[in-house]
Write a structure and sequence with these properties.
Shape: globular
Mean pLDDT: 88
Radius of gyration: 15 Å
CATH architecture: Alpha-Beta Complex
Largest sheet: 5 strands, mixed
Order of helices and strands: HHEEEHEE
CATH topology: Lambda Exonuclease, Chain A
Strand content: 25-35%
Helix content: 25-40%
Number of strands: 5
Number of domains: 1
Structural class: alpha+beta
Distance between the termini: 27 Å
Low-confidence stretches: 131-136
Length: 136
């Protein structure tokens, strides 16, 4: 399955979840519903995938990706009113951290579902092919 097909399935699942669940729940509710919906579509889903952030080859932080689909797509979920630039930066940082090409930022808000697709910039790697932490 190509990136486009996978992201299409993920976005479709988000709309179905919102239509079924509605507005006003915590992110954890949407995450659990997304996992159910994505598994029904036959997609492999990992929840809270760990990501380590390095500084000069030393771990300086740990983060967790909301959903990791088909070992390829990073999905960050938000139950907020509007997507801020820092949410987009966070997703790009996650992509750099796990060296994956495509990520989705999905917002479940009062006005419905909003999706932002982000791509990793391989130019943001050092001479050892390691992602540069916090560059976007």
């Amino acid at each position: 399955m190509e990136f486009e097909e996978i992201t299409h399935e993920i976005i479709g699942a988000a709309y179905k979840v919102f239509k079924t669940v509605g507005f006003g729940f915590l992110e954890s509710v949407y995450k659990k519903a997304m996992i159910i919906e994505l598994k029904k579509k036959g997609l492999k889903v990992e929840e809270e995938k760990p990501l380590k952030v390095y500084y000069e080859d030393q771990v300086v932080g740990d983060f967790f990706i909301d959903l990791f689909v088909q070992d390829e797509i990073v999905v960050e979920l938000k139950a907020i009113q509007s997507i801020a630039k820092e949410h987009e930066v966070q997703l790009v940082n996650y992509l750099n951290g796990v060296r994956k090409e495509v990520g989705l930022l999905i917002k479940f808000g009062q006005s419905g579902v909003q999706v932002k697709r982000k791509y990793r910039n391989p130019a943001q790697e050092d001479e050892n092919n390691k992602p540069l932490p916090w560059d976007t």
